Amino acid sequence: MNSLDWQLGTVVQVTPETPHAKTFTLRLPHWQPHRAGQHYTLRLTAPDGYQAQRSYSIASPPEQTGEVAFTIELIEEGEVSGYLFEGVLPGDQLEVRGPIGGYFVWEATPQAGPLLLVAGGSGIVPLMCMLRHRQRSGIHNPTALLYSVRTPEEVIYAQELRDMAQADPLFYLQLAYTRQAPVGWTGYHRRVDEAMLQEALGLLPSAPQCFICGPTGLVESAANILAEQLQLPASAIHTERFGPSGS
Amino acid sequence: MQNSFFNRGFQRKRPAPTGHVLPPGQYETKDFPVLSAGPTPQINPAQWSFGLDGLVQTPQQWSWQEFNNLPQQDFTVDIHCVTQWSKFGTGWQGVSLDTLLDAAQPTTEARYVMAHCYGGYTTNLPLADLRGGKAFIGLLYDGKPLAPEHGGPARLVVPHLYFWKSAKWIQRLELLSEDAPGFWERAGYSMYGDPWKEQRYLDDDEYLAAKANE
User: Fold this and answer.
1) CA of B71 to nearest chain A CA: how many angstroms apart?
2) Residue that finishes a domain, picked among A50, A67, A100
3) DSSP line for B117-170
4) Domain named Oxidoreductase molybdopterin-binding: which ranges (chain B) (predicted)?
């Protein structure tokens, strides 16, 4: 079995994360370990033969063998996400191929240096894979996550992230709400900017590897600030963009 | 996989594009999504240059001013990104690769091209795919200077291949006798990237080559 042949996975779990995001866990007949940050392509086939493909980042760590989890955001008018949200239940089969991608990846090694993760919305998914991989590997490299969301109810993995931050003094969780913040919130209530990125860098003992994932506007702005104003080498800045058309 | 499998209750929701054919596995978008591996290089046209070198008889280098003075054409092309979106009828203005290659005169050994970009990106293509009106250096998109996040000030555009071959922030084309992988190709993407054959990944090349030899 070639890594990129199509295979039929069986949905073993569907977990609502937020009003607009669900995690689908698939058991795969030909599972193989992925690198944190990689994705799979999912293909839906209609009875008349019509097919639609979309790429989805892997949320589960490679340590979770035999399965892959994808956290998928419901896109308005989304042909694929709409079907997954309405129609797919445990026991159903979905056709996938992967893992794919070799640049936006991070490996937990004992030598791993500091890590700066910047997420916007569902851009958290591949970064969560890195965080889970880091946690399951028992690697304690200093790591900061700056996670921008519109409202409190849209924070994906909220509890797990808070638990992770409490359990690990070298993991720094910084949420930034761009529209509505929780009552009594004293943290960031604005879009990601230079001051925020500067503060995140200040939590880390030395220049980090950076992984930035989210909508184009956030990724462009964060990557450019890190490269231009904050003088990080371009080779340390990895970006992945979720365009508005990725449905 | 033999496709007797289908997803119960799934049906086409996006209307089929009219007057255009989508390559396999693609869907139509009206946006122009941005995908790049790192930060967008900020390029000052005063410092910009574009060169053609390697296996050519007369290596060329143009400044921004010189390049803009070359004969330009309008191109209306469909583009296909490996991340599954296609965009029909994009309008560009730029310089045909035929014009540039004629100036440099490739030697008879030249068969492949490595595109080198500001910011360090590279991608490889066969020389034949840049000739015969099939490729250009785009300077204007939709009548306006090409935005930096889309590859401005100048981008290689090779619309008949997946769009990662259309290198943003183009700086130099190096003509070579042998094919060598560029940035995404080293990360497992196809050496050629024909959307009509769905050559997305290196494994697709091997799979298709094995099929051809059967």
Assistant:
1) 33
2) A100
3) ETTS-EEEEEGGGGSTTS-EEEEEETTEEPPGGGTTT-EEE-TTS-GGGS-SSE
4) 38-184
Give how far Cα A141 sits from Cα of A114, A144, A147, A163, B107, Å: 6, 10, 19, 17, 52
The predicted-structure confidence for B38-47, as pLDDT tens digits, reads as follows: 889 989 999 9
Return all residues near B164 (Cβ < 8 A) that are at least 6 apart. B35, B81, B82, B123, B184, B189, B193
Quick one: CA torsion of A121, A125, A131, A136, rounded to 10 degrees?
Answer: 150
What is the phi/psi pair of residue B55, to 5°?
Answer: -80, 70
CB B194 within 8 A of CB B146: no
Contact B35 A3 (CB under 8 A): no
* Out of B6, B41, B84, closest to residue A55 by CB: B84
pLDDT at position A2 is 60
A82 touches B: beta carbon within 8 Å? yes
What CATH number does the domain containing A96 carry? 2.40.30.10
Measured between alpha carbons, how far is A104 from A116 in angstroms, rounded to an integer?
A: 13
Token pair belonging to B64:
């921004």
Decide if A44 and B201 are in contact by the 8 Å CB cutoff: no
Q: For residue B101, give the H/E element and its range.
A: helix B97-104
Helix (H) or strand (E) holding B99: helix B97-104
Residue B214: predicted pLDDT: 62
Question: Which tokens hold the place of A142?
Answer: 């200093």
A108, part of any domain:
no
Q: How far apart are CA B22 and CA A79, in angstroms?
A: 16
Instruction: Please indicate, yes or no, if residue A246 is contained in any of the structural domains.
Output: no
Nearest to B141, CA basis, from B62, B79, B192, B80: B79
Q: What is the pLDDT of residue B73?
A: 97
Domain span at residue B85 reads 48-183
